[in-house]
Amino acid sequence: MESKEIILRTVTKLAIFIILAFAVFLFLAGHHNPGGGFIGGLTVASAIILLLLAFDIKAVKTGLPIDFKVLAFVGVLIAVTTGMGAMVFGASFLTQTFGHVHLPLFGETEFATAVLFDVGVAFAVLGTALSIIFTISGDIQRWKR
Amino acid sequence: MSCGVPMMNNLVILPLLIPLVTGILMGIYKNNLPLQRRVSLFSLAVNFGVSLYLVQWVAGSGIRILELGGWPAPFGIVLVLDLLAALLLTATALVGFACLLYAVHSIGEDKERHYFYPLFHFLLVGVNGSFLTGDLFNLFVFFEVMLFASYVLLSLGGTKIQLQETVKYAVINTLSSTLFVVGIAYLYSVTGTLNMAHLSVRIAEVGQAGFLTVVAVVFLIVFSLKAGLLLYFWLPGSYMAPPGAVGAIFAALLTKVGIYVIFRMYTLLFYHQPEITHWLMAVMAGLTMLLGGIGAIAQWDIRGILVYNVVISVGFIISGLVFATSDALVGAVYYTMHDIVLKALLFLLGGTVIAIAGTGKIKEMSGLIRSHPLLGWMFFLTLLALSGVPPLSGFVGKVLIIKEGLSLGSGHRGFYLLAGIGLVSSLMVLYSLLKVFINGFWGETVLSTEMEKGTERGLVFPCLLLTAVSLFLGLGAELLYPYVDQAIITMLNPGLYIEAVLGEVF
Shortest CB distance from B68 goes to which of A77, A80, A92? Predict the structure, then answer.
């Protein structure tokens, strides 16, 4: 068992960082280019699913002690709250705004409130996708027994 | 001031945001049941207050819109609050409160732990969103929100009958949603817009020629499936399966959303060829009332009788739309509000009877009125109100719709027939519900208090609340009439709706 999975596990340990970095890249690209919270969240989810394939569900759960159902709800809450934030400033619900800031390393950088909304979307997608995977795998564990 | 106006308009979205945020919070605090119960009820009470305020606000200052994200009307998505929507929002919040109160006492801890409260609130998000939206695709999205919540609520508990009916319900609704998207695609390809006000302008410009009328009929099929207008074959089974509180909220709201959308679509968009679309609706409405009535009479199970009563009222409301005079529309809107309250009440009472007797078969119960007088008299009052006995709430709507039908009858003979069927259907309602009353409440008391399967404790108060509302709808008709009268002005003059959304330009 151990010997068969050694290649997968070794590759996974390396690949996971590449996938997560790519997820962050996709997430940040979202505002003007293809990408965004949805696809960023899905990519993170795919990284964790790869972990599940290479290791077992117990190891992943001890490494990531998060209730993904709650994470999904929190994500939606963040998204809705950013929408309501606009209402505090007297604009319509979901109105977004942006500004440019000069950062030392990145130069002229654009900050948009839509990114906050996207954080919520990413959490919601990540939470939902992993809840589904964990629920299905939980069922299989029960069948095996 | 320029800052103040959109601030005010943000009020429009509150009936949507309140259940949404509550639902999310209930999902996060999944295991704290006392908190969930209290916050859920509080949220619905707040929603009711907000809706009442919105009714006053819109009645005073006309249609209000909210351009989401600040994107202007035909390009962005708008929420449109007119008086019709505001009235229905109020009825929804009220009925939601009563059903939730009933659910708190009856639904059981197991279901409560499995996201009952979040789902209930998400269902309300879908319903309120459908009332508010001014964009056709957005309407589809809110329909889906509502349906997804209802799929889970229907199957929650996982008994055999529930799962069986959920499969049917999910399949038929997926089919109708697919047709919905197809219809939207057709409409978009012809008109190039999905904003309902803009659509109305474009359709009026090109005239509702053959192709657009076909699209109108496609939409009629879609919403008839949702509302249970003639295409109600899926409805009795799936409304009978869930527990009392869920059945009540389904019966009160889900079909009414379909009816509301039919109101909107055929007074705002497709009103140019009534000889095709409205004629079709007339036939469907007549058949719905007749077949629903026969179904209700044939049933010997209390739940079966109640679900067929839902079907009958759909046909009756749509016949008000078919007559399409201002009085008939007032009647239809009034009857819709009455029906939202009364169907919830009827299902809650039915649920209580079943909880006490432990069975739904009316031949197996008898003499309940001796041990449960309050329940019995509320049921009697409800059946009188539903069959339209004055001065109770069903009377106003029935008299207006049937009066208009009869006065139009000299022009179109068919309208005599439709009004006649409307009258006969009232008798069928009366007969079918009296059957429950006579078998269940009269006669020897076979169940002694010790032998009862459940108690009515906690279940009677929500019913009392709704009975009081029903009495108010009937006795306070004078008070409510001006609002309903004003609500149908937008239905008669699509121009007002268009002007509110798109401004003077169009």
Answer: A92
Of B20, B66, B118, the CB nearest to A92: B66
The count of CB pairs under 8 A between chains A and B is: 48
Does residue A129 lie within any of the structural domains?
yes
A46 is a domain residue = yes
Looking at beta carbons, which residues of chain B come within 8 Å of A74?
28
Summarize pLDDT for B39-76 with one digit per residue, the tens: 999 999 999 999 999 999 999 988 999 998 888 888 88
CB-based contacts of B127: which residues, under 8 Å, 6+ apart?
B92, B142, B146, B253, B254, B257
Residue B360 has phi, psi (to 5 degrees) of: -100, -10
Number of domains in chain A: 1
Inside any domain, residue A1: no
**Alpha-carbon span B315 to B490, nearest angstrom:** 22
Contact call for B7 and A87, based on CB within 8 A = yes
Cα B291–chain centre separation: 20
> Structure pTM?
0.93
Q: What is the residue whose two structure tokens read 């001006």?
A: B482
Domain range enclosing A14:
6-144
Task: Name the residue of chain A whose CA is nearest to B22's CA.
Answer: A77
- Within a domain: residue A108? yes
| Mutation site, B24, B31, B80, interface A, largest A CB count within 10 A | B24
